[in-house]
Write a structure and sequence with these properties.
Blueprint lengths: L2 H8 L6 E7 L4 E7 L2 H8 L8 H4 L4 E8 L3 H15 L2 H5 L6 E7 L6 E5 H7 L1 H7 E9 L3 H12 L13 H4 L13 H16 L3 H17 L3 H15 L4 H14 L6 E7 L7 E8 L2 E2 L5 E4 L8 H13 L9 E5 L2 H13 L6 E5 L8 E5 L4 H8 L1 H26 L3
Parallel strand pairs: 7-11, 11-12
Antiparallel strand pairs: 1-2, 1-3, 4-5, 4-6, 7-8, 8-9, 8-10, 12-13
Helix pairs in contact: 11-12, 13-16, 14-15
Length: 415
């Protein structure tokens, strides 16, 4: 890695945002989003490689720029706007029509808001798309459409009902629809109060929108239109504090599950029955289970006595020197707080922000207490959904270590 890249990596914040990669000729070649710019961008330079074009060309990156955003949703929107503006080479090369979503606004009297995939737009053709939609925002690679639309609907009171309904829709009863269904809001007012602010937000003009909402809120209060002032106050709060943790969790889990070649979980255990002939194991799982061709055995050379924590430290340190091995997305250690703390220190010393999980089993192996070290809140949701997989990996790392130790001891017995 070149020194100038190392310096740039040190400036990355642990915040959500968008990163831009430029080649040696100054050309923008890739745009990506991240819930943690520091963690995501560093991962490209950690030795992990997959068939994605952007990761195969990472050695050609000479300059990194980034923009911090107030939320993951804003990072998704900014990424889409930058891709649409510049169409960077490696975004296009890595494109999968099934994962590129757009947010569209129809030309109906009361415009409807929906998500469509790139594939659908291609089938419609450019002319039919223009006839159907007044605005098309995106592309948004890997967008969790359902979660994103839920956030936008609540923030802007987007209506999914039809005008002229016999009864109010459920969202109207919940206060999340302005009454399109019951005729309580005219098409003109719906466009002014809902569609125009939504367009501003999707165009990346959040700060300008906030100023507009403040002005309108003050004017409504002066006119003693307190219901409208209250609606604008609630919208202002939502804009200033976008609750998109559901979007982060779901998109992270879906992304990991859909890219099993990248989902690599390494489990470690130590086996010893005395001060000598200690061994360690590394078992590897993907989202489906064991990847036995990637298992590794370690003889312990530097640790006197029976210190499992020191043995784990030696194994992890030696493993991380292997730049020719794929880097893990998650590291699992068989043990409690002492093992987790030592592993955490080793990762920190090497500048690695790899999620770390320990499973403390208790003296009788009668419990499974999970210890989690990560700055990514999505990991907590992923671990809750995959506890059985992690327990299987812990048990497999233990089995593999014990098996190696027994074979080694058997080879030392006199015949």
């Amino acid at each position: 890695m070149e020194n100038n890249i190392q310096k740039q990596l040190k400036t990355l914040p642990d915040k959500s945002g968008v990163y831009l990669f430029y080649n040696h000729g100054g050309e923008l070649v890739y745009v990506g989003k991240a819930t943690s710019l520091k963690s995501r961008v560093k991962s490209y330079f950690s030795g992990l490689r997959s068939p994605r074009p952007v990761e195969l060309m990472i050695h050609n990156v000479a300059k990194i720029k980034f923009f911090v955003t107030g939320s993951a949703l804003e990072a998704i929107i900014l990424e889409g706007n930058l891709i649409k503006k510049y169409w960077p080479k490696y975004n296009v090369l890595g494109k999968d029509d099934k994962s590129w979503n757009y947010i569209v606004i129809t030309k109906d009297k009361c415009p409807r808001v929906a998500t469509v995939r790139e594939q659908e737009l291609k089938l419609m053709g450019e002319n039919k798309a223009k006839e159907a939609y007044c605005d098309i925002f995106g592309p948004y690679p890997g967008l969790n459409a359902k979660a994103a639309m839920k956030i936008l609907r609540r923030m802007f009171k987007i209506s999914y009902c039809r005008p002229g309904a016999k009864r109010a829709c459920i969202y109207r009863e919940m206060g999340e629809c302005l009454g399109v269904c019951t005729g309580e809001i005219s098409p003109a007012d719906y466009k002014r109060k809902v569609i125009r602010p939504l367009k501003m937000f999707l165009s990346g003009a959040k700060e300008k929108l906030i100023k507009k909402v403040v002005r309108e809120m003050v004017a409504a209060a002066k006119a003693e239109n307190f219901e409208e002032a209250g609606r604008l106050r609630d919208q202002l709060r939502a804009l200033k504090r976008i609750h998109d943790i559901a979007l982060i969790n779901k998109s992270w889990v879906e992304d990991s599950a859909s890219k099993k070649t990248k989902m690599r979980i390494e489990g470690y255990d130590i086996s010893n029955l005395g001060a000598s002939n200690k061994v360690g194991s590394m078992a590897v799982f993907d989202a489906d289970g064991p990847v036995k061709s990637q298992y590794r055995k370690f003889n312990i050379f530097t640790v006197p006595g029976q210190g499992d924590v020191d043995c784990l430290a030696e194994v992890l340190s030696r493993r991380l020197k292997h730049k020719d091995w794929l880097m893990p997305d998650v590291i699992l250690v068989d043990g409690g707080r002492p093992q987790v703390n030592r592993a955490k220190r080793i990762l920190y010393e090497r500048g690695l922000n790899i999620p770390l999980v320990g499973i403390a089993k208790g003296p009788k192996r009668a419990k499974n207490e999970f210890l989690i070290v990560t700055k990514n809140p999505a990991m907590y949701g992923w671990i809750s959904s995959n506890k059985n997989l992690l327990i299987r990996l812990r048990d497999e790392a233990h089995r593999f270590a014990v098996s190696f130790h027994r074979k080694k001891m058997a080879s030392l017995r006199p015949v």
